[in-house]
Amino acid sequence: MADIQFLLIGLVYSGIILLGALGVSLIYGVKRFANFAHGDLMTLGAYMALFGVGLFGGNMLVGVLFSFVVLAFVGIVLEVLIFGRLENRGPIAPLIASVGVSLVLQNVVNLVFSTQIKNYPVPLVDNWYFGPFFLNPIRGLIPLVAGYGAALALLLLLRFTKLGKAMRAAADNLDLARTSGVNTRAVYFSTWALASVLAAAGGVMLGLNTDLTPTMGFTVLLVLFAAVILGGIGSVAGSAVGALVIGITYALFYPFAIQFNVSTQWFLAVPFGLMVLMLIFRPWGLLGKPVGRETRSVLTDLRETFHMVFGRRD
C-alpha cells in the first residue's frame, strides 16, 4: 500500500520535472546548446508569480499568468542580447554564456527578493482519498496535470501548427529552412518565449511543493538534464518518458531510504547515475535519434575492439 502512495508522489514529481525538461529539450532542439540557465529561469518564474500575486490583490492564477508574460519577455531579451549574437559560434560559446546568465539570474533574485524563505499564499486544501491512497488537489493533482498536459500540448503544437512545423524544420536543417522561406528569427523568439513559459510553469509547480529560495531551480537542474538525456534530448515524448523514469526511481528510492536509514539527499545520485549510463551505452536516449558519432555507443566500440584483438587474421 505504502509503495503505491510513494508512486503517486513520484508521478507528481515527474510532472514538475517534465515542465522544466520540456524547455531544456526545446532550446536544445532548435538552438543546439544545453541551456544551463534554465533552472534559474524556473526560479525567476516562481518569484515573478509571487510578485504578481501581491501586485494583483492575492489572485494566484493572475500571478501565474503575469509570470508567464514576464518570462516570455525575458526569454526573447536573452535571445536578442546574448544568444542571438553567439549564433554560428558552436555549442560551447552559448553554453558558457548560459552559465553566466544563470549566475546573474541567481544574484538578481537574491538582491530583489532576499534569501528569506517564502511561500505561496495558497489555501490548505484537504487531500483527496482513493481508498487508502491520497492526492492533494493543489500540490499533487495540479503539477501532475500541468506537466503531462503541457507535454501533450507541445506535441500537438509541433505536429499540427505552422509555428511547430517551422520549429521542426529549423531544428532538422537550419539552412534548408531558411532557403524554404522560414523566418528563423521568429522561430528563435518563439522558441525562447515558449521554453521560458514552460520554465515559469515548472518553477511555480516546484514552489507549490517546496519553499521559494533563490537556488530552488538550480538544485533541480541536474535532474532536468537527466530526464532529457534519458528520454532523448530534443524529443518532447522522450522528455516525458525521461521524467517518468526519474519519478518512478524517486518513488522507489524513498522506501529504500527509510528502510535502510539512508539520507534522501542521496536521491540525486540515482538520476545522475542513470544519465551517465545512458550517455555511455545509448547516448541518443530512449526515444531520441542518433546523429553522427552518437550512433557509436561504448558497446559498439567494445565489440569492434574485441574483433580487432581476437578476430580471425588473414
What is the SS-derived class? Answer: mainly alpha
| SS elements, strand count | 2
- As for the number of domains, it is 1
Report the sheet-strand fraction.
under 5%
Tell me the number of helical segments per DSSP (H or I, 4 or more residues long): 12
Distance between the termini: 63 Å
Query: What is the topology, as strand order, of the major beta sheet?
Result: 1-2
**Unreliable segments (pLDDT under 50, ≥5 consecutive)?**
none
**What is the CATH third-level topology name?**
ABC transporter involved in vitamin B12 uptake, BtuC
Biggest β-sheet strands, sense, barrel: 2 strands, antiparallel
Shape: globular
What report would you give on this structure?
Helices cover 70% and strands 2% of the residues. With 314 residues, the chain is an all-alpha fold. It has one domain (2-310): ABC transporter involved in vitamin B12 uptake, BtuC (Orthogonal Bundle), CATH 1.10.3470. Strands 1-2 form a two-stranded antiparallel sheet. The protein is globular. The mean pLDDT is 88.
